[in-house]
Amino acid sequence: MITLSTSRPETKPERRLQFDATFVEQLFVLLTLVGIVVGVLLERVEAAPGLLLTVRMATYFVGGFFAVIAIIKALRERTIEVDLLMVLAALGAAYVDAWTEGAILLFLFSLSNVLQNYAMNRTRSAISSLLELRPDTVTIRRDGELEEVPLEAIVPGDLVVLRPGDRVPLDGVIIQGTGNFDESAITGESMPVQKGVGATILAGTLNQSGALDMQVAKTAEESTLARIIGMVSDAQARKAQTQSFLDRAEQWYAMGVIATVALFILLVPPLFGVNFSDNFYRGMVLLTVASPCALVISVPAALLSAIANAARKGVLFKGGAHLEELSRVKVIAFDKTGTLTYGRPEVTDILPQPGVTAHALLTAVARAEAQSEHPIARAILAYAEAQGLETDEPEAFEAVTGMGVRATWEGQETLVGAPKLFAHAGLPVPQELLDEADRLALEGRGTVLLAARGGRWLGLITVMDRERPDAAAQLAELRAAGIERIVMLTGDNERVAEALGRRLGIDEVHASLMPEDKLRIVEDLGRRYGPTAMVGDGVNDAPALAAAASGIAMGAAGTDAALETADIVLMRDDLSAIAYAVKLSKRTQRIVWQNISFALTVVVVLVIATLTIGIPLPLGVVGHEGSTIIVVLNGLRLLAHR
After folding, report:
1. Of 67, 58, 57, 59, whose CA–CA distance to 113 is shortest?
2. Which residue ranges does the record assign to the P-type ATPase A domain (predicted)?
3. Lowest CB count within 10 Å: 53, 339, 368, 535, which one?
4. What is the pLDDT of residues 19-70, one digit of tens each?
């Protein structure tokens, strides 16, 4: 039985040692086969007994070498490896002078382990490929001179020079130049992203074009890439409930098999008058076919393949347990801002009053908001700039908390905000404007701002956080994947939330929520409907993410809080990643149970055949090892999941 590595990614010297060990194991398998052939030939030519015994013992040595090492290591830790069952069966075969059958058992068992190791190493390619994203040396600019230094010598504040084709060595900020960056290795996003001065760039991304200078923000150990590598490594070490149960059961099962076979060998001959030698041979076959190798490897083969596949696509599961848990989710609760919407307000409607142009309305509102730091003001100014308007600052400005702004220039006061701002200023709002504002609010057009200047009504402007264009389609994908109920949680006002919920076909909408309200609702959803997932940004939604059966942080590339808070981290800001993760988790569970069912069936069939009609040891070995390889290959199918 192979032992799966759960250590951190190895360094280059460690990889060399692993390669050498793998080579020796492959060589020993080949030598075992050669020993079997030579032994058969010597037996046929009736060679000297001493020479034949020497060849047979040498064959057993190379065939069982790595299995014995695994057994000794396990016994030191007070556990039993299923390798012990194979070695005992081979020794038992030698005891009844069935050396060739025992050697074939060791050969096929060792060959199976080599093939499993080769197959399972493919699931670790996510870490190997990430390690290759880190350059060994970096070009930095010091005192106006370019200098090549080792990656480990870089400290925050250093200026790194990036040329076209360079990998970004560490997380940092562009201080000069622009470039197109391939972020697919980190976020899974296939399209390059253009970035300029002030933009954050992540370690492991590729500068496709443009020469630029970057100021390092984090050390190599603190970079997003390093943390992803650590998370994938930890995820491979954390076992799902099914795997943990099988690991615990393996110890009792192995001891039970040894005890049962011992009783079978000792009691059957005197009770049923069976020849001891024949019965002993059958006991060795029973010891072989009852071994749970395929059953034990059936779960990690699937889970590790799924985790590796997801990591390549920018979806990080923090362990097989979270992959398993997501497959059971019935309800998904979404935080609205930044998940179903882009998380940034935009101007959506400009509705001037009769006699007022849209240009005049936008110009007045933009100037009134010029000194405001409110996100709505920033959205209006950005829209005005995109329209080519140059905005002057007002001569006087006042932000009225919760109402809007008052600004004065050229001797006239301009008011922009909610109806209560105008009531507070003693300027009644015409009923037709109030009706229009109510209509826009009911339609979910976002925040409605009224504008007046010098006592004259200019019109209305709406600002809203736009939903993602693919949001409705992706929610439909989730329903198709088996999610029974979709819920939206938001701190936004009820009208805006209800309108968005109607457009996206959401089952439940909860608005005007504080973080503690989201926590309460997520817990209630779990009680009412079953396992619930929460999708948020990993910061404001931390209590709800922690309470959910599956906490999912979306668009978390470079966000420390999101990397720490959630069970599942989506590195790219894309709703399709959620549907992908759900489908992958469900397919993984299907394959896990396919493997478990198949492995158990093979064991039962082979045990019954051994106890009834009797089967030769080589055939039992082929059935046993063949089933092990089949479940591994079945699990590896998840590497190709799309």
Report:
1. 67
2. 132-232
3. 53
4. 455 788 889 989 999 999 999 899 888 888 889 999 999 999 999 998 899 8
Catalytic site includes residue 465: no
Class of domain 137-231: mainly beta
Which sequence spans correspond to the domains of the chain?
137-231, 315-341+467-587, 343-466
> What DSSP state is assigned to residue 342?
E
What's the confidence (pLDDT) of residue 507?
Answer: 95
Per-residue buried b or exposed e for 70-95, using 16+ beta carbons within 10 Å of the residue's own CB? bbeebeeeeebbbbbbbbbbbebbbe
Contact call for residues 57 and 44 (beta carbons, < 8 A): no
Residue pLDDT, tens place only, 578-632:
999 999 999 999 999 999 999 999 999 999 999 999 898 888 888 888 888 898 8
Helices (H) and strands (E) in the chain, counts: 22, 22
- Quote the pTM value: 0.72
Q: Are the C-beta atoms of residues 113 and 625 closer than 8 Å to each other?
A: no
Q: Which of 83, 171, 335, 567 is catalytic?
A: 335
First-to-last C-alpha distance (Å) of the chain: 30
What are 115-125's pLDDT values in tens digits? 767 666 665 55
Q: Which CATH class is domain 343-466?
A: alpha beta
CATH of region 315-341+467-587: 3.40.50.1000
> Where would I find the H helices in 8-98?
12-44, 49-76, 83-95
